[in-house]
């Protein structure tokens, strides 16, 4: 049986607007750390969320990835269907390797062939609603009070790249945006980094 609501059914939060709340690296680690290291579903969920964080993919893109689409040598993922309506190649950080390899091994042990990389233990599709509910539960278990959701990991990925001084042209490519101005607006919405950085250079009076 597939996990989550099926295509064609509206998400439970459809039409609602939420302010973005990027997570800190410690918060991401705490959330993903709630996934079991032993159970097959825990290994899958850990790999799924780890790759989501280290690639910045949209959840719909991640759940459509097939095993042959992942190139570990180049750390790239071939996406056949994207928001832009065309195939794209995106990158992911090597820190995701171990978790994804463990799930790939477990997937083979379960005898799963073909289909999406992240699937049910019977080889069926996993839907976005399952991942949304999973993240909500894991965040509660980790004691994270922010709203934790799949797109929030994409936000966090972008914020971490920006904080690491990654050129905006590179961030734009990694996010799959159609142009750099879109990425600039995206980052400003998330971080307001120019204003925050400028404040650090202001000589304000001490209260000591």
Structural write-up:
This protein has 208 residues and is mainly alpha-helical. The chain has a domain at 25-149: hpI Integrase, Chain A. 48% of the residues lie in helices and 5% in strands. The protein is built from 9 helices and 3 strands. The chain has helices at 25-32, 40-55, 59-64, 97-109, 128-142, 150-163, 168-175, 180-191, 193-200; strands at 70-71, 76-79, 88-91. It has a 3-stranded antiparallel β-sheet with strand order 1-2-3. Helix 1 (25-32) crosses helix 5 and helix 2 packs antiparallel against helix 4 (97-109). The radius of gyration is 18 Å and the shape is globular. The N and C termini lie far apart (63 Å). The mean pLDDT is 87.
Key attributes of the depicted protein:
208 residues; mainly alpha; 3-stranded antiparallel β-sheet; 48% helix; 5% strand
What low-confidence regions span 5 or more consecutive residues with pLDDT below 50?
none
Label the overall shape.
globular
Strand content: under 5%
Mean pLDDT: 87
Major sheet summary line: 3 strands, antiparallel
Largest beta sheet: strand ordering: 1-2-3
CATH topology of the domain at 25-149: hpI Integrase, Chain A
Number of strands: 3
What is the share of helical residues?
Answer: 40-55%
Q: What would you say about this model in short?
A:
By secondary structure, this protein is mainly α. It is built from 9 helices and 3 strands, in the order αααβββαααααα.
Strand and helix map with partners:
Blueprint lengths: L24 H8 L7 H16 L3 H6 L5 E2 L4 E4 L8 E4 L5 H13 L18 H15 L7 H14 L4 H8 L4 H12 L1 H8 L8
Antiparallel strand pairs: 1-2, 2-3
Helix pairs in contact: 1-5, 2-4, 2-6, 7-8
């Amino acid at each position: 049986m597939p996990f989550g609501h099926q295509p064609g059914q509206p998400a439970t939060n459809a039409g609602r607007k939420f302010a973005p709340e990027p997570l800190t690296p410690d918060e991401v680690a705490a959330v993903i750390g709630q996934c079991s290291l032993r159970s097959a579903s825990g290994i899958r969920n850990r790999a799924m969320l780890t790759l989501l964080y280290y690639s910045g993919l949209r959840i719909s893109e991640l759940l459509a990835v097939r095993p042959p689409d992942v190139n570990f040598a180049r750390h790239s993922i071939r996406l056949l269907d994207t928001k832009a309506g065309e195939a794209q190649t995106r990158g992911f950080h090597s820190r995701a390797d171990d978790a994804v390899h463990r799930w790939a091994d477990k997937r083979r042990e379960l005898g799963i062939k073909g289909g999406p990389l992240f699937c049910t233990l019977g080889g069926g599709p996993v839907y976005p609603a399952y991942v949304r509910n999973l993240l909500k539960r894991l965040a509660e278990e980790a004691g994270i009070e922010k709203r934790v959701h799949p797109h929030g990991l994409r936000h966090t990925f972008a914020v971490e790249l920006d904080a690491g001084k990654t050129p905006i042209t590179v961030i734009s490519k990694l996010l799959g945006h159609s142009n750099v101005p879109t990425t600039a607006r995206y980052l400003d919405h998330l971080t307001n980094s120019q204003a925050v950085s400028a404040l650090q250079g202001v000589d304000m009076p001490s209260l000591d």
